[in-house]
Amino acid sequence: MSDAVVSAEPMLEVSGLTVDFLTDDGLLHAVDHVTFGIARGETVGIVGESGSGKSVMSMAIMGLLPKSARVTGSVKFRGQELLGASERDLQRIRGSEIAMVFQDALASLNPVHTVGAQVAEAVAIHQELKGSELRNAAIALLDVVGIANPSARFEQYPHEFSGGMRQRAMIAMAIANDPAVLIADEPTTALDVTIQAQVLEVLERIQQRTSTSIMLITHDLGVVAGVADSVMVMYAGSQVERGSVEEIFYESRHPYTKGLLASLPRMDRRVDKSDRLHQIEGQPPSLVFLPTGCAFHPRCPFAETPGACDGEVPALQVVGDGHYSACHFPDRIGSDEGMKS
Amino acid sequence: MSGETPDHRSLVDSPPGSAGPSGLIGSELVPSASHAFDTAAHASPVARSQWALFRRRFLRHKMALVSLGVLAFLFIVCFGANLVAPYSNTEQDLLLGPVGPRMSHWFGTDELGRDQLSRLLYAGRISLKIGIAVALISTVFGTAIGAIAAYFGKATDQTLMRLTDLFLVVPAIAILAIALERFGSGDTTIILVLAGLFWMYVARIVRGEVLGIKEKEFIEAARASGASSTRVIVRHIVPNIFGPIMVNATLGVALAIVAESTLSYLGFGVEPPQTSWGNMLSQASGYVGTDRAYLIYAPGFAILITVLAVNFLGDGLRDAFDPHTDRHQ
């Protein structure tokens, strides 16, 4: 969505956000000192494999984590601190200023209410609309997200909608109050590719209309490449690299990002001689027992062990204009056999 | 989904919502481009309000309809007893004494020569009132306690559920005796005391159900859209556990009517000359196996029919509230 108006005004500023859960095995670091910002009209892609803390981070921003979670750091929306804000304030912000689109639209819609009633409710929570006014507002929203024959659709239940339509309905609910920030947590994962494209198009159109900032959580690099302005890559709860979409895709300075990109199937290149896709060796670490030093070092082909990699947690360092990498040796990971070809 | 569609063309055209060949791909997704959806628009189902859907699903439930009729009939004849009843409920005919069913006394008379049918109708006022009121109060209260306990968890849960346990273990009869002694055995006292003894079962069932529902994603989604806890509980959780609540409420009606009979039997129920079905039943209980057993049948069947009707009605309501039943037509 790089053609959207991106201004420098920061909508959401996250700094040092850390989320710990106390488990029987010890402290689980779900999110570890994550820092980033989203400008007005910007789309930030948050990429990482399952369990890398993407969703927990979004729930922490919304203040929706259970009380057993220990959240520290700072989340500022338009300069207002959200961590530790009263539930009352948070309720006012949720849905009206920061809204969320969930991955599984069927599970996220209440099965006993019609879709229309739920979209109308999303409006009614934050706006004083009643009766036919409210109904018309909800129908207009269904129309905006491209649901055909919205007034008939209004009366139907979620189970009568197809997957793509449900996700559109979820988006309609999320944009009901023209939120400044839209957190989309894997909005297209459960959909097939054509529907994915349509849903992303809907998001893009909404962004162009209202300059909404979008935080797009996904593990689909293709989606990110298509719509994001900047990208943040997460691994084991920490951010490992952050930068513009071009920098991340063509000049990545982190071995994990490199590995992810190399594992993508590509139309324009034959897979190597063994006819297998590239894979990152090993498995993601347990969040309770993180490896010493860099969490990625046991799987990293560039790691120097013993040495800095297993000795010290790498700090996020500047490797380019607005490009950060949490690697001890970002210069070794050049743009050579990367993704350009 | 297309089971909803009255228009058969939908099977040929793109079914609504499938986002199939209705021109979405590649076409501009702006609302003004509605011509792109024309095909889908024609095939879409007719708009129906939520209430209309509810009514249709309820009307499909034949036994519930019959039960609604039976209950309506019972209410009309009982609460209109002064108009319908052939005799007064207290009028005695000592010379006639106890006689079996006959044309002048359809259900016979008791030992004081009182017309059983008339007494049954007047008694129905009390029994129906107690049954419905107790079920209603205990269901609403129990649901509130159970839902709040489960939703907020932690200390709230502990406090409320231990309170529930406390109510479960206190000896019901003793409480009843004390309460009725202190406040008199008026209808209101009986209703409140019985409701006070019934709500715990509802609370426990509701708590269990809510514990399951509150982990669902749509609850998280509702919270993410800024809904308050009250709204989440009332709008999103309770409607989803309407089935079990409804079943319990109908059982509550039956239990309350029967419990009132027990009270009457123990001498704590409504006081003569007021009667309830339970009261009549307990008075007649000594005649089991004698030639006056007909005195048992009238109140016995009245209770049975009411309880059955309420149960079927509850069944129908539960199905009508569940949108998924539409799929099984």
Task: Summarize, please.
The complex is a heterodimer of chains A (341) and B (329). By secondary structure, chain A is an alpha/beta fold. Chain A contains twelve helices and twelve strands.
Structure, described:
The complex is a heterodimer of chains A (341) and B (329). Chain A is of the alpha/beta class and 341 residues long. Chain A has 2 domains: 10-235, P-loop containing nucleotide triphosphate hydrolases (Rossmann fold, 3-Layer(aba) Sandwich); 255-325, no CATH class. Chain A is 31% helix and 23% strand. Chain A has 12 helices and 12 strands. In chain A, the strands form 2 sheets. In chain A, strands 6-7-8-3-9-10-12-11 form an 8-stranded mixed sheet, sandwiched between helices. In chain A, strands 2-1-4-5 form a 4-stranded antiparallel sheet. In chain A, a hairpin with a 2-residue loop joins β4 and β5. In chain A, α4 (115-126) packs parallel to α7, α5 packs across α7 (163-174) and α7 (163-174) runs parallel beside α8 (193-210). The model of chain A is unreliable at 1-5 and 335-341 (pLDDT under 50). Chain B is an all-alpha fold and 329 residues long. Chain B has 2 domains: 2-43, no CATH class; 50-328, MetI-like fold, CATH 1.10.3720.10. In chain B, 64% of the residues lie in helices and 0% in strands. Chain B contains 14 helices and no strands. Chain B has helices at residues 9-12, 38-43, 50-59, 62-79, 81-84, 116-152, 154-169, 172-183, 187-213, 217-224, 229-237, 242-266, 277-284, 294-321. In chain B, α4 (62-79) crosses α14 (294-321), α6 (116-152) packs across α12 and α10 packs across α11. The longest helix of chain B is centred in the middle third of the chain and has 37 residues, at 116-152. The two termini of chain B are 12 Å apart. The model of chain B is unreliable at 1-47 (pLDDT under 50). The chains are: A alpha/beta (341), B mainly alpha (329).
